[in-house]
Amino acid sequence: MSNQNPVFIPGPTNIPDRLRLAMQVQTQDHRAPDFVETFAPVLEDTKKVFATTSGKIVTFPASGTGGWEASVSNTLSPGDTVLVARYGMFSHRWIDLCQRHGLDVHIIDCPWGSGAPADKFAEVLADDRDHRIKAVLVTHNETATGVRSDIGAVRKSMDASSHPAMLFVDCVSSLASMPFEFDKWGVDIAVSGSQKGFMLATGMAILCVSPKALDAMEQARLPRTFFDFRDMMAANASGGFPYTPPLQLIYGMRESLKMLFEEGLDNVYARHFRLAEGVRKATAAWGLNLVAQSPDLYSDTVSAIYVPEGFDSNTLTDHAFNTYGVSFGIGLGEMNGKAFRIGHLGSLTDVMVLSGLATIEMSMADLDYPVELGSGVAAAQEYFRTSCANPMQSAA
Amino acid sequence: MSNQNPVFIPGPTNIPDRLRLAMQVQTQDHRAPDFVETFAPVLEDTKKVFATTSGKIVTFPASGTGGWEASVSNTLSPGDTVLVARYGMFSHRWIDLCQRHGLDVHIIDCPWGSGAPADKFAEVLADDRDHRIKAVLVTHNETATGVRSDIGAVRKSMDASSHPAMLFVDCVSSLASMPFEFDKWGVDIAVSGSQKGFMLATGMAILCVSPKALDAMEQARLPRTFFDFRDMMAANASGGFPYTPPLQLIYGMRESLKMLFEEGLDNVYARHFRLAEGVRKATAAWGLNLVAQSPDLYSDTVSAIYVPEGFDSNTLTDHAFNTYGVSFGIGLGEMNGKAFRIGHLGSLTDVMVLSGLATIEMSMADLDYPVELGSGVAAAQEYFRTSCANPMQSAA
Amino acid sequence: MSNQNPVFIPGPTNIPDRLRLAMQVQTQDHRAPDFVETFAPVLEDTKKVFATTSGKIVTFPASGTGGWEASVSNTLSPGDTVLVARYGMFSHRWIDLCQRHGLDVHIIDCPWGSGAPADKFAEVLADDRDHRIKAVLVTHNETATGVRSDIGAVRKSMDASSHPAMLFVDCVSSLASMPFEFDKWGVDIAVSGSQKGFMLATGMAILCVSPKALDAMEQARLPRTFFDFRDMMAANASGGFPYTPPLQLIYGMRESLKMLFEEGLDNVYARHFRLAEGVRKATAAWGLNLVAQSPDLYSDTVSAIYVPEGFDSNTLTDHAFNTYGVSFGIGLGEMNGKAFRIGHLGSLTDVMVLSGLATIEMSMADLDYPVELGSGVAAAQEYFRTSCANPMQSAA
Amino acid sequence: MSNQNPVFIPGPTNIPDRLRLAMQVQTQDHRAPDFVETFAPVLEDTKKVFATTSGKIVTFPASGTGGWEASVSNTLSPGDTVLVARYGMFSHRWIDLCQRHGLDVHIIDCPWGSGAPADKFAEVLADDRDHRIKAVLVTHNETATGVRSDIGAVRKSMDASSHPAMLFVDCVSSLASMPFEFDKWGVDIAVSGSQKGFMLATGMAILCVSPKALDAMEQARLPRTFFDFRDMMAANASGGFPYTPPLQLIYGMRESLKMLFEEGLDNVYARHFRLAEGVRKATAAWGLNLVAQSPDLYSDTVSAIYVPEGFDSNTLTDHAFNTYGVSFGIGLGEMNGKAFRIGHLGSLTDVMVLSGLATIEMSMADLDYPVELGSGVAAAQEYFRTSCANPMQSAA
């Protein structure tokens, strides 16, 4: 039933052996000194991936959705206003979460395939003279559309009117795969998870929190216990956890950070760009279009690709799975039926990507797509071979 | 630094090899048919462990604390009254959670070492003629004191005045180790986790929810998204998950259930009783006292044992860890310094328990406790060897 | 340094997760009943893979070379004559072994790329009227050249003169990947290993021995202890081992057999043919030639492919390894520098094969081979997609 | 069926998690540079464990028996005389091997429980004026009797008459657990394996060979191929292997050496002595006798213990296995029925040893042995707690 083919979903990623082994930890006493010695450096090292010195790392045994909830419930009060642009499934879900938690959400609806509208943010914020907007929420990498937004531009749009709102960024599917600048971009809370760029199993929400967000925490009246920053930080400070910690993921995180630093974060980002570019070359060779509207928005972790008119993307992904045993991302939300997605993040090589391209190409041929067999693969091969500067550049 | 000695903390438990292997799952597409086929039977089989046919199983990628939060936030509204007895650290923490979430908590303070006060519950409930109390919250096994409460008696105390309050039970450290009767006891929400009787890694909160609690959900106004029952049940119904599922734990859970059913739940309970009884025989031989006030309260998953006057239990557990590399539970809360705890749950054998008893005995001798070396071990040996009906009775 | 790319060497194969887990066995007492219950069925089930009911399975903790030595030292005496054809590295090595052990080896030298010369065997055997030849040694699948010989034809050549010599077959790189007929072909000793079709780690020689070979054992005077059939069979008969058994491989073997039978041996063979055929289509599209001289000799587990005149195959395989992190088989012996090899056996899918083809294609382009980028991949894709009868046909 | 109890057989040992993980290596190309970089340092570091600078390390994918065969077949010729004392099962088996390989074995029969008779060796060697004896074969640690012989004394007995015979030592169950001095003792070939002091799976014979033995190789006429030193050393010299190497064990060996060096070889030896001494204290407290005749012969890796008159040791070990799920060593050969064995080597702690002692004690009580329950455990506890100098001294 199962096989050893890689998955091409945009996370959870293929887990490298090294991390599978690292997570195979027998139970240890999380109240013993070993745990402290393991956990504290993990928190410290994770800051490097967020590119922060001022932020605090807070983790929870939860998924990214839990991280979103933590960001909101620790810093805001019922009735608070937040500003969010909706341009994909994940920005949509964060909005939904805010509404369920009694926030007043100012929504800017944008076409799927576009990114965070810095200019519109600037307008709305400039108009908000009495600073009712407490936070701007942005999805850095919209996994549903393969769009990466410019967080630096969002920050500028906020600075333009010197608006004091906090900036919350969902970087679940971008962190540790594409550059992220917590300090430089003035992010207040960044939310990520263990199962994407960190290449681990699902189960740990990883947040970075600015001093400003910690101040906001003092007045925040949304209820929280499991996701309480204060409890977590207090326990962490003495090397503990307010409840049972996810030991296996913490050991996995330690090894993941080692892997990332051994390769070098810049090399990790360059590798992701190169793999993504290969996929984009193939897409062009097929004559297909990306959902992302323009090159500046192209994500290096996932490509959402429109199928031609008259075809159903779900049939394509089902066929690839049922016939060749390979999983690709389905089209989500508005893109359901219209686009399929190729995840190209985490522990992946050009060689593995080529097998994914070859598979989806066969699937398209099987379903009579107007696509020439081998064309996408050849385009990616040509790009990969000519862009391959470093021998053995591949991730572990 | 690390060694292969078992841990004697009251969870997370020693993870059996079989479950460590089962959790070593490479990433699979959680939107693919395989996942549905794996997950649905897990939910169904888990009901057997709760002894329910009417309840629904709901899981979250979280710890038991997250399970508590889910129980409260899905069924109650700000200002609602709940009735809780406080007789240990975990009942205390649940109270704290309720208060943070804006509930009005009617607290019955009881001495640590006692159990849920069914008679006092009966009084309070009888007095609550306009039924302001929406839920009674009970900790089945108070891990801090080694006390198991009589949930059937609590149910009777509620029935005595035909009070309509819901009954919520924390069975984190009892489920799958001691008998639990969701249907028979009329429980409305039971909260457990992956890392105790299920012998898995930490990271999955496991709840059982009655139809009555599901009805209450319709009016409940506490905010929740990550822990929303409705989202989870809707996604589960079609074989999915509202966000990324903890794949490794789900596969682990499937194998854990197999192990439990292969041994037979009654045999699992009998084994836990036998191991606990061995520890209690040793305790008596040492001339020490359990924190649990009377035999009907003795927990079969953890024993909290008072150190003699003039000794500090933390020194004892530190010594055992530093000198012999064995972890025991420290005294929590009121018991800090006064009692240590021996966890005896999960995948454990009499042989392993004897090594724990021998170790703590050496530690007591090292610290000049008035305890005869070998006495506790011999008492446990005598009990184990005479109570050993079935050859190869040991858990996997 | 390491990555998750598959290897394309002709064994050891990529080990499927399921078998990696199966081999993760903690030490058990090999003198305890568990071992007997595990090992005896493994021996029995292995017969099915050899297609024998009359043969006995004998295993040693050794490599295939050890298996060769066992075949010779258990059945022959110093000075005995054996007949062997040399048409590749592995037939050459077996000859060398015989000579070192004092046998008189009648060698028939054949061109590399040809197979076992049944007609020449027939001649030599017909001439050997006083039956000095005690055994005919044949390499079923010559891993160095990608040639599969016709063992049935060899048997016929022996039967033609009713020659009583034993027939020994090296099926190290064919068993469990291509059809093998121990009984039907009248094989007397077949030698295989754990690390090829069985998809396990290296370390177990697996032999099948006919009653006739067991008779020969009674007179055989070559010394042997470690590899003694009699000791092994006697110990095995009571569920034991004459020395410490390779427990992990035995458990691995048990699971490997399960996997093979679940897929069905015929499906396993068909899958290997299909993957091999895809590689051959690619080879043709590149305009390159196989070392195997004719289609009837094509191996379904490994293809040896000549590089064009003026190119060095070692440069090619080094480049693929150093630039793309993928291992292919180098040219061995006479083929060194002239041919490279693609291993396509064990737990492999069409999707994985395509990544290998894409990689070697890029490497050829990098080194200015007269090969069109994408051509081989497209040819294999076209074959794979049109020959793909069963959805999810891929091996585990 | 299986459980997590430690085994107390004298090897294979309980495999520590760290080594189980280290052996979980996916297939790599053993002809690629990675392999060279891994394997060469392993060979070099292994010398430290043999305490040699002059010796060469040679490994084979085989068990210790294969190592014995290699020692003999690489250095001797049919008809050569070797001198061996027989004082247990393993010395007996080595004699048998020599005889099967056509050697003339001068046997000195000694009582089981005694060690290598240096004085008798001296006599025989002094009498052998024309130096027909080519090698003296000694079992350092006789696993069947728990006797460690004095190899230094054997060397002196050889030097007394300046006899040029080689000295071969079986250190399978002593190396990496008790001090071994290859150079100082003038050993010519020492034979060990992966599954004892190295704490790995079974499957690698590990030999150390002196320059003198390598010289002898030039004239040696016993046939060998699989076990040929020259082939192995030639291949190793260029980082290769003459056939498929046992990759997983080589990676395991690398990590095992790391573990041994991290703990420090002297600490490893001291730990083994301490664990053994605890077992001996228990034995004395039970009023039972060791098979080893005197304290200077006591092995630190295994204790063979006589059961009282009228009892059958097999009944005892069967009972311990069937009732408590713990494996002890049975009495081998002459000791069958008369003695049982407790293995105390490898990755073991005092805590684990106590569980073994407690178990065998219960078993003896069950079978009405005249042994006081708890007596042996208490004696070992008292020794362990007073001899415990270093906190966290336990091996990983």
TrEMBL record, chains A, B, C, D:
Assigned keywords, A-Z: Aminotransferase, Pyridoxal phosphate, Transferase
Domain of life where this protein originates: Bacteria
InterPro entries, sorted: Aminotrans_V_dom, Aminotrans_V_PyrdxlP_BS, AspGlyoxATase, PyrdxlP-dep_Trfase, PyrdxlP-dep_Trfase_major, PyrdxlP-dep_Trfase_small, SP_NH2Trfase/AEP_transaminase
SUPFAM superfamilies in alphabetical order: PLP-dependent transferases
Molecular-function annotations in GO: transaminase activity
Domain spans labelled Aminotransferase class V: 27-281
Cofactor(s) the record lists: pyridoxal 5'-phosphate
UniProt keyword Transferase, yes or no: yes
Keyword Transport: no
Matching Pfam families: Aminotran_5
Secretion signal span: none
Family: Belongs to the class-V pyridoxal-phosphate-dependent aminotransferase family.
Name this protein carries in UniProt: Aminotransferase class V-fold PLP-dependent enzyme
Organism: Ruegeria haliotis
